[in-house]
UniProtKB/TrEMBL annotation:
Gene3D superfamilies: DnaJ domain, HscB, C-terminal domain. This is Co-chaperone HscB C-terminal oligomerisation domain-containing protein. The keyword Chaperone applies. Keywords: Chaperone. It comes from Smittium simulii. Belongs to the HscB family. GO terms for molecular function: ATPase activator activity; protein-folding chaperone binding. Residues 132-203 form the Co-chaperone HscB C-terminal oligomerisation domain.
Length: 203
């Protein structure tokens, strides 16, 4: 069924052009009252983590030893954000993309472990092989259980629960190895964790 509605594409330049016309008007002799954001004392705040003084517009604490992400500035309106320079908007978008990628990477135990190893200059590839024979026998046994459980939902759930427990156990082991700075063993256990995730994804 045809629609009479029209679709409009809103661009940053169009928004900026529109908002640039929204300016206050005063009669002769009138002056604008001083707003809170004009007060120098309100242009800075303290980092919630280390208490260092920082700009309200800062996304991260500027302290060299902190660098903690900061809350959104409550004094900023949507107009402040959308009428900013193109450069500021680009930086804000880059920060948002970077933070989302960081969150997605660190929330998953496998991608988090791989990232830690990358920082240690030890990348893991998909084809990297586990070397622990007991672990490899366990993976073979789980493969056989998955194949024999085809069409049996109850058995599949049981196998999934076993793999989930193994992933939790391996993740806890990685946390301990990280605290010990045992990079080589951390590398080996991350490969095993990769096997478990690959097995889980195959179900």
């Amino acid at each position: 069924m045809p629609s009479n509605s029209r679709t409009f594409k809103v661009t940053h330049s169009a928004v900026n052009a529109k908002f640039s016309t929204i300016t206050p008007h005063f009669k002769a002799g009138e002056t604008a009252s001083k707003t809170p954001k004009d007060c120098p004392k309100l242009l800075t705040m303290n980092c919630w983590s280390c208490d260092s003084p920082i700009k309200r517009s800062a996304i991260f604490c500027q302290s060299s030893y902190c660098k903690t992400i900061q809350p959104i500035d409550p004094t900023k309106s949507y107009f402040d954000v959308l009428t900013g320079s193109k450069k500021i908007q680009n930086y804000a978008q880059m920060q948002s993309t970077w933070l989302n990628k960081a969150y997605d990477t660190l929330k998953n135990p496998l991608s988090r472990a791989k990232y830690i190893l990358k920082l240690k200059s030890k990348d893991i590839k998909e084809e990297d092989k586990a070397t622990d024979n007991d672990f490899l026998f366990l993976i073979m046994d789980l493969h056989e259980q998955i194949e024999s459980s085809s069409g049996d939902d109850k058995s599949i759930v049981q196998v999934k629960n076993i793999i989930k427990d193994l992933i939790s156990e391996k993740t806890a082991n990685l946390s301990l190895l990280f605290a010990q700075n045992n990079v080589n063993e951390f590398y080996n256990k991350t490969i095993e964790l990769q096997y478990l995730y690959r097995l889980m994804n195959s179900i």
